Amino acid sequence: MGENRAPLLLKKREEEEYYEDCPGCKVDRIKRTDSGIPVKAVFFISIVTLCAALPISSLFPFLYFMVRDFHIADREEDISYYAGYVGSSFMLGRALTSILWGMIADRYGRKPVVLIGTITVVIFNALFGLSKNFWMAIILRFLLGSLCGIIGTMRAYASEICRKEHHALGMSAVSTSWGIGLVIGPAIGGYLAQPAEKYPGIFSKESLFGRFPYLLPCLMVSLFALVATVISFWLPETLHKHNKRNKDQSDLHNVAAGTTNCLNFSESMTHSESRIPNSQKSLLKNWPLVSAIIVYCVFQLHDIAYLEIFSLWAVSPRSLGGLSFTTADVGQVLAITGVGLLVFQLFAYPLVERIVGPVMISRVGAVLSIPLLASYPYLALLSGFCLSIALNCASMLKNVLSVSITTGLLIMQNRAVSQEQRGASNGISMSLMSFSKTIGPAVGGSLLSWAQQRQDADILPGDQLVFFVLNVIELLGLLLTFKPFLQEPEDNIIPK
Predict the structure, then answer these.
(1) What pLDDT does 369 receive?
(2) Which of 233, 362, 426, 488 is most buried, judged by most C-beta within 10 A?
(3) pLDDT tens per residue, range 118-163
């Protein structure tokens, strides 16, 4: 009798876990009944994440020329130095507020944070296009980074809106949209910056876009953010707004009272304890989470430094070891890269992750990136069609590897904590990552500026030094992906 009654009680317990007025319970019920691919959710995640990525990357092609027009640099070699600080100001603002936004997301829900972030992009990114001097640009980028807490929130959201078997797809949507944004953004900035010079038949020098040559790309990004704001109203909230602890303990008591079979009681107790949030445990004592965040920050430091250096290196004159590209040339290269990145992440990455796991993907990506980066300085020796083919292939492969590494580490971070801690854990991740990304552009710009002054050095002349330093950072990240440093989370702490 007891053996037959225990499964019924457990079944009843699972059904009673749902609260009709709780948005998180509604999402969980849909996840349990619908095992299909969450196409609509993945689309929403992609649009909102893309909205957060575009303001970061859209300025890369024209930042060099924008700083030049501010007339703050005394020499051409110093432009990269000042450009690095404009890029870093956004990340500094985000580093200082990411934990706060994570706590707000855990307290009030994911959706309010997303809406505030998209509205912030609408306003402050457009104002950045109106910058008339260096310090105005610095302040506006800082405010944009401080008030936009989208990325960390969407990482938590992606793992909550998808069933466990679709976690890789959800996190891949975040990483892919982020990677696409880091590619489409430069395309927007490259083709739409300085429109009066590129398209004199449409924009005159006396027009608004002639007087503010960098407003048009910023305005286009703000308009896209406006669309993302409207879409965000349809985002289903995933945060549970009730106290599950007391309920779980009550259900455990009911199971114990009505079950005479010790084995069934033990299984019921284990099931109930796995549902109790780990809110009493410090996130900083969760080594699988902490180790994944540290490795993630190292790779993100590398990636942001690479993006900053690549754009500045490409537009630098050949006399300084660059490619003498225009903003449109840089935008075209990165736009082509985006196509390959999109195809890989949507169709290939989820399959590969299920076969080899997220850690192995990160290791393979790091190993392949090192020889690829070492070849970059020699691309400057090419010209014409050969340069175009080689640069597009190298850029596409580099971005595919970078986003694959990021996606694998994000999956590990979200699997290492329960839902009640996921917003805070992603806030900590975003804060530490943003500090590393604050360092990346500033150090990358300064390093490139210094390297371009030593073209005749005997050891690692010119840009060879820059890409060597990038490889050192990549190698450090690779070494940290091995045990005992990086530890994968156990299955029993993976939230539903």
Answers:
(1) 94
(2) 426
(3) 999 999 999 999 999 999 999 999 999 999 988 888 878 887 887 7
Instruction: Judge whether 193 and 60 are in contact, CB under 8 Å.
Output: no
Query: Which amino acid is located at 490 in the chain?
Result: E
At 87, the amino acid letter reads: G
Residue 384 Rama label (left phi>0; alpha psi -120 to 50; beta): left
Given pLDDT bands bounded at 50, 70 and 90, which one contains residue 419? low
Q: Are 200 and 72 in contact (CB under 8 A)?
A: no
**Three-class SS of the chain:** CHHHHHHHHHHHHHHHCCCCCCHHHHHHHHHHHCCCCCHHHHHHHHHHHHHHHHHHHCCHHHHHHHHHHHCCCCCHHHHHHHHHHHHHHHHHHHHHHHHHHHHHHHHHCHHHHHHHHHHHHHHHHHHHCCCCCHHHHHHHHHHHHHHCCHHHHHHHHHHHHCCHHHHHHHHHHHHHHHHHHHHHHHHHHHHHCCHHHHCCCCCCCCCHHHHCCCHHHHHHHHHHHHHHHHHHCCCCCCCCCCCHHHHHHHHHHHHHHCCCCHHHHHHHHHHHHHHCCCCCCCHHHCHHHHHHHHHHHHHHHHHHHHHHHHHHHHHCCHHHCCCCCCHHHHHHHHHHHHHHHHHHHHHHHHHHHHHHCHHHHHHHHHHHHHHHHHCHHHHHHCCHHHHHHHHHHHHHHHHHHHHHHHHHHHHHHHHCCCHHHHHHHHHHHHHHHHHHHHHHHHHHHHHHHHHCCCCCCCCCCCHHHHHHHHHHHHHHHHHHCCCCCCCCCCHHHCCC
Between residues 75 and 145, the one the model is more confident about: 145
Rounded CA separation 57/41 (Å)? 24
Q: Structure pTM?
A: 0.69
pLDDT in tens, 245-302: 444 444 434 433 344 343 343 443 333 333 334 443 577 788 888 898 999 999 989 9
Report residue 313 as tokens. Answer: 């290196």
| Angstrom distances, CA of residue 72 to CA of 124, 135, 324, 466 | 23, 10, 22, 24
Largest distance between two CA atoms of the chain: 88
| Residue appearing with tokens 């110093």 | 78
Alpha-carbon distance of 300 to 237, in angstroms, equals 29
Note whether 285 and 306 are within 8 A (CB).
no
298-349 pLDDT, tens digit per residue, is 998 998 889 888 888 988 888 888 898 887 888 788 778 877 877 787 778 7
From residue 167, alpha-carbon distances to 149, 154, 243 in Å are 21, 13, 25
Name which residue leads in pLDDT, 287 or 230: 230
